[in-house]
């Protein structure tokens, strides 16, 4: 008897594409449940709020269910969307004001603007503790260099974003703050002992879980105390810590599998299967449509071959559907967008941030 192809496994892959409108091939992949959503980057959002909302409407219309429509809108140097959206300084600057209530209000405003444009998930906040002074990728993206500050402000950012109907995604588990390499280009290794991870790196993630964070993102970093061979994205040991020690029950998303930390060592097929096996529930493959398709096919083949892997995919799909049910954001019409994006609430917060910066 011919094997039955497992349904909807393609939804575990979240991809990117070029241009400011939805390519026909990507729309078809969404309709056929071969993608679970889209991540947008600067080249996708160059036309301003109306263009971004129009693109989000295309994505929502193509997907049979609520898609994940995501963006990296952290603040500071990692903010894909610019004015008239709220201009937020780096997280280190926000934390330096010492006001978690203000941080939560800023995050809520960021989330409200993104929700108005049709995004359903923001890949923020950064929960890394920036303990390495020569860190080439985190730096002022982190709330600070001590675990308590990062925990307090990270939890506030989660509450603010999710209070707007958006999903927050804390990153990069178990922490990218003690690295001297950028995982976009190389594979970092953190040699800290398990007790240090518990007392420093894991503290902000534990606080985010307590605050109800809907999703977390794995780091392409080897933590030798957990797994000497595989980065957290591909490591069952790291994912077990997240589920069993921290009690996280939400959606675990991989960082981009096209980053060199992974892609220089594993094919996208191997990485996709290993990441889902390890405990990831959704996979980012941000740039190449061909690699997105290869990942989907690899997951499908492995699910046809292995009942255990198929069960793991079904568990992941369950978490994905639960997360999507929590994302209530939908793109507004143009008058509605004009009221929210750059509206009175955002202008008041912008003025408050300017006063804090000027002190």
Architecture blueprint of SSEs:
Elements: E1 13-15, H1 24-31, E2 37-40, H2 49-62, E3 68-71, E4 73-75, E5 78-79, H3 91-96, H4 100-117, E6 121-122, H5 147-162, E7 167-173, E8 189-190, H6 194-210, E9 215-218, E10 222-223, H7 236-245, E11 251-253, H8 260-263, H9 268-278, E12 283-285, H10 289-305, H11 307-326, H12 334-340, H13 344-358
Parallel strand pairs: 1-2, 1-12, 2-3, 3-6, 6-7, 7-9, 8-10, 9-11
Antiparallel strand pairs: 4-5
Helix pairs in contact: 4-5, 5-6, 9-10, 10-11
Can you characterise this structure?
- Helix 5 runs parallel beside helix 6 and helix 9 packs across helix 10.
- This protein is globular.
- Helix 2 links the parallel strand 2 (37-40) and strand 3.
- Strands 11-9-7-6-3-2-1-12 form an 8-stranded parallel beta sheet. The protein has a two-stranded antiparallel ribbon with strand order 4-5. Strands 8-10 form a two-stranded parallel ribbon.
- The chain has helices at 24-31, 49-62, 91-96, 100-117, 147-162, 194-210, 236-245, 260-263, 268-278, 289-305, 307-326, 334-340, 344-358, and strands at residues 13-15, 37-40, 68-71, 73-75, 78-79, 121-122, 167-173, 189-190, 215-218, 222-223, 251-253, 283-285.
- The protein is built from 13 helices and 12 strands.
- It has one domain (12-346): Glycoside hydrolase, family 3, N-terminal domain (TIM Barrel, Alpha-Beta Barrel).
- Helix content is 45%, strand content 11%.
- The mean pLDDT is 95.
- The protein is of the alpha/beta class.
């Amino acid at each position: 008897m011919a094997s039955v192809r497992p349904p909807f496994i393609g939804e575990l892959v979240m991809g990117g594409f070029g241009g400011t409108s939805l390519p026909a091939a990507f729309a078809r992949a969404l309709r056929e449940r071969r993608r679970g959503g889209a991540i947008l980057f600067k080249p996708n959002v160059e036309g301003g709020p109306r263009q971004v909302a129009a693109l989000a409407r295309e994505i929502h219309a193509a997907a049979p269910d609520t898609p994940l429509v995501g963006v990296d809108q952290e603040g500071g140097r990692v903010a894909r969307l610019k004015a008239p959206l709220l201009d937020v300084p780096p997280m280190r600057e926000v934390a330096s004001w010492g006001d978690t209530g203000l941080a939560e209000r800023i995050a809520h405003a960021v989330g409200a603007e993104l929700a108005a444009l049709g995004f359903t998930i923001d890949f923020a906040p950064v929960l890394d503790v920036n303990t390495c002074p020569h860190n080439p990728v985190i730096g002022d993206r982190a709330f600070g260099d001590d675990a308590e500050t990062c925990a307090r402000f990270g939890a506030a950012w989660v509450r603010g974003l999710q209070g707007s109907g958006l999903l927050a995604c804390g990153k990069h588990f178990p922490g990218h703050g003690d690295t001297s390499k950028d995982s976009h280009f190389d594979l970092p290794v953190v040699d800290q002992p398990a007790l240090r991870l518990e007392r420093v790196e894991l503290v902000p993630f534990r606080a985010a879980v307590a605050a109800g964070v809907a999703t977390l993102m794995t780091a392409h970093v080897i933590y030798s105390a957990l797994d000497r061979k595989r980065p957290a994205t591909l490591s069952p040991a790291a994912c077990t810590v997240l589920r069993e020690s921290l009690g996280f029950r939400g959606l675990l998303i991989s960082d981009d599998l096209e980053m060199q930390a992974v892609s220089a060592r594993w094919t996208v097929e191997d990485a996709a299967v290993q990441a889902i096996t390890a405990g990831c529930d959704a996979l980012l493959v941000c740039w190449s449509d061909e690699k997105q398709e290869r990942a989907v096919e690899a997951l499908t083949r492995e699910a046809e071959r292995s009942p255990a892997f198929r069960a793991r995919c079904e568990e992941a799909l369950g978490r994905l559907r639960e997360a999507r049910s929590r994302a209530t954001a939908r793109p507004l019409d143009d008058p509605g967008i004009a009221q929210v994006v750059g509206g009175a609430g955002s202008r008041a917060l912008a003025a408050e941030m300017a006063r804090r910066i000027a002190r």
